[in-house]
Amino acid sequence: MHKPFLFFGTPYVARDTLAGLMERGYRPEVVITSPDAPSGRGLTLTPSEAKVWALEQNLPVLAPERINRALIESLAQYGAEYAIVVAYGKILPQSLIDAFPLGILNIHYSLLPKYRGASPVEAALLNAETVTGVTIQKMAFELDSGDIVAMKETLIGPEETTRELRTRLIAMGTELLADTLPAFESGAVTGVPQDASQATFCGRINKSEGELALSGDPKRNWNKYRAYAESPGTYFFVTKEAKRLRVKVRTAAFENGTFIPKRVVLEGKAETDFAELTKAGWTPA
Questions:
Q1: Which domains does the chain possess?
Q2: 151-175 confidence digits (pLDDT tens)
Q3: Which of 87, 123, 108, 116 lies closest to 226 in space, CA to CA?
């Protein structure tokens, strides 16, 4: 019989983790997620991916605007011994962390203390890492500074982008967490403090960071393409006569030391081969 716990999470990363945990028999007392948010061109209020899935499984769901004393006090009714947090999207106050007898576990998609912060998968690819992994940490108030409960490494494939790598890391993290929970629930797990002197950081990514200069460093362009393939995407500009338009990169390759856009979308047009743009007289700016 598993001890009662709460689950905090918002995007598909959290949804897929929760699904994997439930397959292993770990069903939370309640799912706490971000409030419905405007989405799409029509800015329609849309529930989080974790919320949609949880409701389909008949799980109780809370979507508070903020974490305050009233919310923390209300969570006591669930009698949870601990909580799991995966990509929740809000900073958890110390009062919430202290509210659980066993604490809060978090899956972080890097080998902590490397790449603390919001974009560890992107950072690993951007910096041409060949090894990354997942870390289960016991949360502390300082960002990604908690004691390490479990860790697992994996090689990064030379062609992997965030799409493929994140999918693998989600599955790895879910399996590692599920394997760790029996010992954690029994009190047999002792976390290992991080070496803060070795910490590196990665922040939120702006859309402008996805701009490529095709005349620039080809390896840098390739790493950017791999890192930002899922979001925010990469792009460059082309010119033709007096026009200057943006081109989104859908697929690309790195061959013989050269970055080669393959499938692209010219602003206002349908997806096509990059070669077709050059044949039509468009030149990279």
A1: 5-201 (3.40.50.170), 207-284 (3.10.25.10)
A2: 999 999 999 999 999 999 999 999 9
A3: 123
